[in-house]
Design a protein that fits this description.
Largest sheet: 10 strands, mixed
Radius of gyration: 24 Å
Number of domains: 2
Helix content: 40-55%
Number of helices: 18
Structural class: alpha/beta
Strand content: 5-15%
Number of strands: 12
CATH class of the largest domain: Alpha Beta
Shape: globular
Order of helices and strands: EHEHHHHEHEEEHEHHEEHHEHEHEHHHHH
CATH superfamily of the largest domain: Glycoside hydrolase 38, N terminal domain
C-alpha cells in the first residue's frame, strides 16, 4: 500500500507517587480515578479494536513511577474498593431520585446510566484483564499494536537538576522499570514536561552535556519535544495556556514576564530530526519528534477544542451527594449552578462528528507535509488522562478516530520508533531549551512560590553523589541503606510537588510530601555518615513505598560524559 504520510497518537501517562499516601482529596484516589476513568476504558477500547481486526498503531508512554503503581497489588486491591464505592454511590442516587419528594426522571436515568458505566469498568478490570493492567498493555505491545515508551524514574524536572549523576540515575531506573514490567528495553523516551536542555558550561567551568547525550548512551532512538523546540519562535499550544486540564490553571494565576525566544526557522514538526550532540554538534543518533500544533490544539484548547463542546459532560460540577457529574457544559458562559442535565445520546452524536472531523484534519496535515516533498509524520501528543478523566467522552472519541484512520488508505498508522526506523532523519538539528509549561520555559517549576525547594534538592543531590563516591565497597547493611537513601532522593526530586504548588491545586499536600521525603533522606544519610546505617528505618520505608527495586546507589556517582 502506498501511503501519503504517517500518523501516531503519543499518549503520555503520568501521576504522582501516591501509594499509601491517604485517600480523598489527595493521595491514592488520584490513581483510582485515573484507572477507572482513563486506563481501564482505554484498554477496553483498544482490545475491542484488536479483537475486531482493526489495524491500528499508536504510541503510549508510562512514567516509571506510574507504571510501578499500576502494577502494585495494594493499589489494585484498593481500586476494587473504590469502584465498589462508586457503584454504591450511583445506586444510592438511583434510590434517592425515586423518592416522592425528590423525584426527577432524568436524574434517575443518569444515575442508572452512570452505575452501568461503572459496572462495565469493573467487569473489564476483573474479568477481561484479570486485574493485570500492566500485563494488558504489555500484550498489546507484544502484538505490535502499541509502542510503550519510558521516562525518567520519578518524573523530575530534568533541566533544573543540579547533578548529571541524578539525570543518569533517573534514566537508568526508568529503563530498568520498563524492562521488568513490559518485558523489553525501551527505544522511545518522554522527557518529563517536555523539558529539554542543551549542553552548557557552568560558572565553575564544568561542561554539562545536553539530554540527547544521556538518551543516546541509554540506547534510546526517539524522544518528543514541544513544537517551538523544533521550529523556534514563540511557544504555541499547551505552552500558551488556555488548555484543558491542569496546565490551563497556570496562565490565569500568573502574569509572565516577556521572554525572548529563538527566531523562527525553516524546520517542521512533520519531520523527525537527529538531535545535535550539543557538546560538539555532531549527530547524537537520537531522533526528536515535535508535537503537531494544529491537531494538538484541536483537542487541547479550552477555547475551541472538542472537549469544550456544550453537549459534553461538565467536569467541574459534581453532585453534593455522590460526587457524580450529571450535567453538561451547556455553554462557556453558564455558571456551574445553572448547567443543564447531561444527555448521553447528544454527546455520542457530537463525538462521532468530532472523530470524523479530526480524521479529516489529520489527512489535511499529511497532505501539507507531502507538499514539502517529504514523507512526513503527524504526531498528536496529549496527556493520557485528558481522555476519560478531563474529557469524559474522550476515550470513545479516540476509538472512533482510530477506526476512521485505519480505513484511510493515505494514512500510515505507526509508532514513533517504527517511523524513525523506516524513515530515518536526514538532518541534524540543535534543539532549543524549552518545555511545554507556561511560556515554554522553566517557569512552572521554578517561580516565586516554589523556588525555595531547589536548594534542598540540590544539596541532597550533592550529598547523594558524595555518598555514592565514598562507599566503594559497602557492607550489606550499608548498601541497603544507600539504595533506600537514593529512592528517597528520587521521590524528593519529583516535579509533581513543584507543579502542584504552582497550580495551587494541592499546595499543602505537595509541601508535606516534599518535606517528608527530604526528612527521610536526611535521616538515612546521617546514619551512613555516622557509621551506623539505619537498616530498620530503611526497611520500614521500603515496605511503605516498594518502588524501584533494581535501583543501584552507584548510579549516583559523579557522572563522566
Amino acid at each position: 500500500m502506498s501511503f501519503s504520510g504517517a500518523f501516531t497518537f503519543m499518549l503520555h501517562s503520568h501521576l504522582p507517587y501516591a501509594r499509601l499516601a491517604g485517600r480523598w482529596p489527595h493521595g491514592e484516589e488520584w490513581l483510582h480515578e485515573a484507572l477507572m476513568e482513563t486506563y481501564i476504558p482505554l484498554l477496553d477500547m483498544l482490545y475491542t479494536l484488536r479483537d475486531e481486526g482493526v489495524p491500528v498503531r499508536l504510541t503510549i508512554g508510562f512514567t516509571p513511577v506510574l507504571a510501578e503503581q499500576l502494577a502494585d497489588p495494594l493499589v489494585l486491591d484498593h481500586l476494587d474498593q473504590y469502584i465498589d464505592g462508586r457503584i454504591a454511590a450511583a445506586e444510592a442516587d438511583m434510590a434517592y431520585y425515586e423518592a416522592p419528594d425528590t423525584a426527577h426522571g432524568h436524574l434517575r436515568f443518569l444515575a442508572e446510566w452512570t452505575r452501568d458505566v461503572y459496572m462495565r469498568v469493573r467487569a473489564a478490570f476483573q474479568v477481561r484483564f484479570e486485574r493485570d493492567i500492566i500485563g494488558a498493555f504489555r500484550r498489546l505491545q507484544d502484538s505490535g499494536m502499541i509502542e510503550i515508551t519510558t521516562s525518567a524514574a520519578a518524573h523530575p524536572y530534568l533541566p533544573l537538576l543540579g547533578k548529571d549523576s541524578s539525570i543518569y540515575a533517573h534514566i537508568q531506573q526508568g529503563i530498568k522499570t520498563h524492562e521488568r514490567l513490559f518485558g523489553r528495553r525501551p527505544t522511545g523516551f518522554w522527557l518529563p514536561e517536555c523539558g529539554y536542555r542543551p549542553a552548557y558550561i557552568t560558572d565553575e567551568g564544568i561542561t554539562r552535556p545536553g539530554f540527547e547525550h544521556f538518551l543516546s548512551r541509554a540506547g534510546i532512538k526517539v524522544f518528543f519535544t514541544e513544537t517551538h523546540t523544533i521550529t523556534g519562535g514563540d511557544p504555541v499550544g499547551v505552552a500558551t495556556g488556555d488548555v484543558v486540564g491542569p496546565y490551563g490553571v497556570i496562565k490565569r494565576r500568573y502574569v509572565l514576564p516577556p521572554e525572548t525566544y529563538p527566531p523562527k526557522r525553516e524546520t517542521t514538526t512533520f519531520l523527525p530530526y537527529y538531535a545535535a550532540n550539543t557538546l560538539d554538534y555532531t549527530s547524537s543518533g537520537v531522533a526528536a519528534i515535535g508535537r503537531n500544533v494544529r491537531v494538538g490544539q484541536q483537542v487541547w484548547s479550552a477555547d475551541w477544542g472538542y472537549p469544550g463542546d456544550f453537549d459534553y459532560r461538565e467536569f467541574y460540577r459534581k453532585s453534593g451527594r455522590s460526587g457524580i457529574q450529571y450535567w453538561r457544559i451547556t455553554s462557556d458562559q453558564t455558571p456551574l449552578g445553572d448547567k443543564d442535565f447531561y444527555q448521553p445520546e447528544w454527546a455520542r452524536c457530537k463525538l462521532e462528528q468530532h472523530a470524523e472531523h479530526f480524521a479529516h484534519l489529520v489527512g489535511d496535515q499529511i497532505r501539507a507535509a507531502k507538499k514539502r516533498g517529504a514523507y512526513g509524520i503527524v504526531s498528536a501528543n496529549y496527556d493520557t488522562e485528558l481522555f476519560g478523566h478531563w474529557w469524559f467522552e474522550g476515550v470513545e472519541w479516540l476509538g472512533q478516530v482510530l477506526r476512521h484512520l485505519a480505513a484511510n488508505p493515505d494514512v500510515e498508522m505507526t509508532t514513533a520508533s517504527q517511523f524513525v526506523t523506516d524513515h530515518p532523519p536526514t538532518e541534524i538539528l540543535a534543539l532549543t531549551e524549552s518545555s511545554w509549561g507556561a511560556g515554554g520555559t522553566h517557569f512552572v517549576w521554578d517561580n516565586g512560590e516554589n523556588h525555595w525547594m531547589w536548594k534542598p534538592i540540590h544539596e541532597a543531590e550533592a550529598r547523594m553523589e558524595a555518598l555514592a563516591n565514598r562507599f566503594t565497597a559497602p557492607t550489606p547493611d550499608e548498601e541497603a541503606v544507600l539504595n533506600q537513601t537514593a529512592r528517597e532522593l528520587m521521590l524528593l526530586q519529583s516535579s509533581d510537588w513543584l507543579f502542584l504548588i504552582t497550580t495551587g491545586q494541592a499546595k499543602e499536600y505537595a509541601i508535606q510530601r516534599f518535606s517528608q521525603h527530604h526528612e527521610r533522606f536526611e535521616k538515612l544519610a546521617n546514619s551512613l555518615d555516622a557509621g551506623t546505617p539505619n537498616t530498620t528505618f530503611a526497611a520500614e520505608l521500603w515496605e511503605l513505598d516498594k518502588i524501584f527495586p533494581e535501583l543501584e546507589y552507584r548510579w549516583f556517582r559523579t557522572y563522566a560524559p
